[in-house]
């Protein structure tokens, strides 16, 4: 996993009304921008310091609250499913390591995964079952 930091991709979530303005602003500042890329257009994604993916959100975002580690893990799973910006086994390993080493609310994590028709095994591979059985 040591080389993942060399594949930097920023993700910005905005409402539909702000998509074009955000894209124009970032491009004017020299960013390589992909807005709501599909698996087909993901080939245009060139990870780097100034690479950003804009995603439309359909829910209210509380800007005062930072996302939890669990939220970031689920978002990484969903984005990697769409864009394949990292090796899937590395993403699973990262998820597994963070679940082991960080305080993550597993119930909230499972709930968030279920909202997207995903499971803990989708997130962290079959080894997560061993960890869960040890709890």
Please explain how this structure is put together.
The chain has 135 residues and is mainly alpha-helical. Helix content is 46%, strand content 11%. It has helices at residues 19-28, 69-83, 88-101, 106-115, 120-124, 127-134; strands at residues 10-14, 32-35, 51-56. It has a three-stranded parallel beta sheet with strand order 1-3-2, with helices on one face. Helix 2 runs antiparallel to helix 3 (88-101). It is globular. 12% of the residues are buried.
Which key phrases capture this entry?
3 strands, 6 helices, 3-stranded parallel sheet, 135 residues, mainly alpha
Question: Which whole number gives the mean pLDDT?
Answer: 84
Percent in strands: 5-15%
Strand order across the largest sheet: 1-3-2
The outline comes out as globular
Give the topology string: H per helix, E per strand: EHEEHHHHH
Which structural class is indicated by helix and strand composition? mainly alpha
Number of helices: 6
Helix amount: 40-55%
